[in-house]
Design goal:
Elements: H1 5-19, H2 23-41, E1 49-54, E2 60-69, E3 82-84, H3 85-91, E4 100-104, H4 114-140, E5 147-156, E6 159-164, E7 167-171, E8 187-198, E9 201-207, H5 211-221, H6 223-226, E10 230-238, E11 242-249, H7 256-261, H8 266-274, E12 279-284, H9 289-296, E13 304-308, E14 311-315, H10 321-325, H11 330-339, E15 342-345
Parallel strand pairs: 2-3, 11-12, 14-15
Antiparallel strand pairs: 1-2, 2-4, 5-6, 5-8, 6-7, 8-9, 10-11, 13-14
Helix pairs in contact: 1-2, 2-4, 9-11
Length: 346
């Protein structure tokens, strides 16, 4: 394949336009690809430092680069990349110690074999991938612990692929709400637990099923939480079924439950719409373990509570027992998680 400098320059500008890359960065990557191809076809330059330049006329020049060192030939550590001052000055008197010295090694006909072209393409693709990886990481590195707006763009078996700010991201099965039906084109929020950079690339650990997702929603909807007037003390959640949240007011004039519910229920209605049918109970913080347990078992009415160590025996009216336990034992499990008690309902 014969190289055409103007075609290469055009390819650089196309990459810049398509991907909004830095033109100097792209030029360097193309240069690395050309070096890789040149060395593939010219084994004698395998260990040499090669520089490739495309001038304003689109002409391609290949240079071998040496470091000019002081001393004799015995002081050369790498004959492929180093040259003494005396050796360099035999070529040009302008050579000076400590400077780079370039020798034009451009072939009369600069053509690459198919293998060399493949090597260049691989080098270029890998470096472009690295740029994309860094851009991806920078895009989300400061968003850990936040809600991200997303759109469902692909569904296949248990796989849900989301578009997040123009980037396709997989919502893993464990991050999905059980039994929730995700619809193509649906817009939703996910919680970014962590962004990780590893050998396999950059991974966004996103979820809708953790308690942090609930906490992030509450912080987004309830400004008093961000202002520090109300704090979330504890959250217990069975995703898709029910969540219980213990909240505390740090201002005597503020009712934390009323603030979270909002005027005419406007705030809780927004939150429930984001939870797609999952129920949420608010519990006002108290240091009294008995009162906390009674509140945690709502909507069931509780007659008596006996707490001994980490166990609690709770007496409820006969018609309230099923409500205290909840469907699938949801209510009693969440109450146990909030209080740290093993609860027996009698």
């Amino acid at each position: 394949m014969k190289l055409d400098g103007k075609t290469i320059q055009g390819a650089i500008m196309q990459l810049v336009e398509d991907y909004r890359f830095d033109p100097y960065q792209i030029a360097e990557i193309i240069n690395l690809g050309l070096k890789s191809a040149f060395k593939k076809d010219n084994a004698q330059f395998k260990k040499a430092n090669i520089t490739i330049d495309i001038d304003s006329q689109g002409e391609i020049h290949v240079y071998r680069e040496y470091e000019v060192i002081e001393g004799g030939e015995d002081d050369i550590e790498d004959e492929h990349t180093q040259m003494t001052v005396d050796q360099a000055q035999e070529i040009t008197q302008e050579a000076k110690k400590g400077e780079s010295f370039l020798i034009d090694v451009t072939p009369e006909s600069l053509e690459f074999t198919r293998v060399a072209v493949q090597a260049a393409a691989q080098t270029i693709k890998q470096h472009l991938k690295n740029i994309e990886r860094e851009r991806f990481y920078e895009k989300f590195s400061d968003k850990e612990g936040e809600l991200l707006k997303a759109k469902v763009i692909k569904l296949h078996n248990d796989t849900v692929v989301l578009d997040i700010d123009g980037v396709p991201v997989v919502l893993p099965r464990e991050g999905q709400v059980p039994q929730r039906v995700y619809d193509l084109g649906e817009e939703l929020f996910v919680y970014l637990k962590q962004i990780e950079k590893g050998k396999g690339g950059v991974v966004l650990d996103i979820t809708q099923s953790s308690y942090e997702y609930i906490e992030a929603i509450l912080k987004r909807i309830i400004p008093e939480i961000e202002e520090g007037l109300i704090s979330i003390e504890k959250i217990a959640r069975i995703p898709g079924k029910r969540t219980k949240v213990v909240v505390r007011s740090h201002d005597e004039g503020i009712d934390p439950i009323g603030v979270l519910v909002g005027e005419q229920g406007d705030r809780i209605n927004i939150i429930l719409s984001l939870l797609d049918g999952e129920k949420i109970d608010y519990i006002e913080y108290t240091e009294d373990p008995e009162e906390l347990l009674r509140a945690a078992l709502k909507p069931a009415q509780v007659n008596d509570v006996e707490i001994a160590g980490t166990k609690a025996k709770v007496s409820v009216p006969g018609n309230q027992k099923a409500l205290a336990i909840g469907k699938g034992a949801t209510n009693i499990k969440l109450a146990g998680r909030l209080t740290g008690l093993y609860i027996e309902v009698v």
